[in-house]
What we know:
Largest sheet: 14 strands, mixed
Number of helices: 10
Amino acid sequence: MPDTRHFFVINLHSFRSANNLKQVLLDIDSCFSGKHNADYKTYMSRYPRDAVAAVHRYITSTPKNETARIYAVGGDGILFDCLNGMMGFENAELTSVPYGSTNNYTRAFGEDSKAAFRDIKKLSRAPSRPVDVIHCGTNYALVEVNIGIVGKTVIHANKILRDSPSKWIRWFSPWVYTLCAASAVSDMELVGQHYTVKADGEDMSGSYSNIHVANIPCDGGEFVPSPYAVPDDGMLDVITVRSAGRLKTMRAISDRNKGTFEKHKIFNHSRRRVINVESELPLCIQIDGESLFAKEIKLEIVPNGVKFFAPEDLKFADYSDRAYKAKPGERHENKG
């Protein structure tokens, strides 16, 4: 591919083994050596948001008549950093090389897409396609935004995992998230928090335990909480969870993770372009694995906001079959 530069941004924390990292570096070097010689560089990201400025500098130094291909090597966190470093550049393209604990965006191409995205030679020659982006305050996201108990779960889990001096604790990250989720659901002030919500001008204010704004179906490394979401349809899928008792909320969230949220009356699903959320209490927000507190936030879809390159034979997968479907003639279950 002529007039193209390649920038590999590698999250060092995504590799438990030095040998695995070494193999990825060898694959990259092999791809661009010999007859396939091309301009490429690697950058080792050391901490969250470290790569944002590095990506911005790299694209700025690339002539406007050349294409800068950005490879986020790791999980959704490094993909988030790369996205936020490249927004606004017409000559930049993005992809993910999945080695993280969660690789939700590549899962949007199908559960078996990981190997194809790890094939550096195939990926380097892959065509790009325009995909939607979520503009969320001062950040951009490709996957999702959660406000409420999921946001607080990630806030607490990130603190434990990042502040721990022992690398071995990351092996137990699923347990960390489970314990943090149980703690969040036990916070009745959070579960019953009142939000002022305007979605495409419609008043959706109320007390919710969680507000999920999705650009893709996948989440959590294995869950499909928003099975109807499509990454390039110009819409956001919004799922609100009305406040309920602790046990009812836990059961409902469990079904939500499987994509069967429609079993429960406490869920509401709608498709929006712009949603504004504020509250008297701080908002617990999770954006593609990153977490923060705020008093208000505006979420807006940016249609065709970035060019994403993926192996030619891969298309976005249809996850709608994961959703709850009542049998013909059968009354909707509505367990909520």
